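Narrative summary of target 7.
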Amino acid sequence: MTPVGKILVFVNLVFSLFVGAMGLMVFTADTNKNTEIVKVQREREVLKASNTTYQEENKSLQEDKASSGKEKEVEIAKLKAEVEDFKRVKDDLDKKYNEASKKLNEKDIVLQTAVAESSRRQEQNAQMSEILKAEVKRNADISKDLEQTRAKEISERISAQTFKSTNERLEVQLREMAKDMERAKTGGTSALAQVNKASKNPPPDNIEGMVKVADASGLIKISIGSDAGLTKGHTLEVFRLSAVATQSKYLGTVRILEVTPNEAVAQPVKPLSDKPIAGDRVASRILGS
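Modeled conformation, tokenized:
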């Protein structure tokens, strides 16, 4: 084959390839065109349906707007009525408020008057309280003076009774001593021992206690013992103190028989003027004796 034939064959081959490529391009373009047409038709149908829907919605909105307008007019009328009712209620409340304010002002005047009266009464009460305190103090002083006077009177009465008892005892001792002297002259037995036995033997210290128990035999238990300085053989004076002066009395003398640190048992030296009871006092000596 000549070179020219080869060139022609090559050119023919190139031209065939070009035609084939163009055909393929036309086919592809055709296919894409049909697809686009279908797509556009579908979009058109969608737009048409959307337009129909929009028109229906617009119609519905127009109807709703007309209906809503009527409802709003009714609502507005209702609100106007409520506003009128509110104004009427407000006017009533304002009226009541003014009346209440007037009454409150009147009550404030009454309250101020009452406060002033209360302050005046408080001042009077304070003055009365001071007067009452002074009166209570004066009564307390009088009571104290009366108590001291009563105690002094009781002490003097006990002293007088003790003095009388001592005189009676001395008279008995003198009579016994006279009898002893007579017996001594005639050789009789002396009663001096009996007199000495009946004599008093108080503790050296001034001590006081109380009767705790008194039995039918005449023995008494007292609230003081050896810790207070008592020993067996000591004598104590028994007396009774009472808020009623006429019931206070001197009972007599007792002798200690048994002693413990905190208690003692005693026996009357001679018959007492009255039966001792719990609460009666005992002492080594009585004031003034």
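The longest helix spans residues 3-186.
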